[in-house]
Amino acid sequence: MLAPDSPPTKPPTITLLRWSVKCSLKKWEHEEPNPQVQTVIARQIGAIDRQVDEAVYRLYGLMAEEIKRR
Predict the structure, then answer these.
(1) Beta strands in 2-64 (DSSP E)
(2) Are the C-beta atoms of 27 and 36 separated by less than 8 Å?
(3) Engineered SS bond to 57: which of 4, 42, 62, 70, CB 3.0-4.6 Å?
(4) pTM for the complete prediction?
(5) Which distant-in-sequence residues (6+ apart) come within 8 Å of 42 by Cβ?
(6) What confidence score (pLDDT) does residue 64 get?
(7) Considering the domain boundaries, does residue 25 fall inside one?
(8) For 42-64, what is each residue's pLDDT tens digit?
(9) In the chain, pLDDT over 70 holds for what percent of residues?
(10) 3 state DSSP class of 42
(11) Is 48 within 8 Å of 25 (Cβ atoms)?
(12) Is residue 9 part of a domain?
C-alpha cells in the first residue's frame, strides 16, 4: 500500500495500453513514406499520450496544481 503522501503510479493496464497504442502508431509512422502523414501520426501519438494522462489524473482525482508538481 502506498503512503498517503507518495505520488500515485499509473495502473499497469494503463501503461500497457499506452505502450501498445504507441508501438502500433510508431510502426505506422515509421513505415509511412509521406513526411506530412508522418507528422500527422506523430501528433496523434502526442494527443493520445495527453488523453491517457488526463484519464489517469481523473482516475486518481489529481488537481492541476498537483499535476504540475509531478
Answers:
(1) none
(2) no
(3) 62
(4) 0.59
(5) 29
(6) 65
(7) yes
(8) 898 889 888 888 887 888 787 76
(9) 67
(10) helix
(11) yes
(12) no
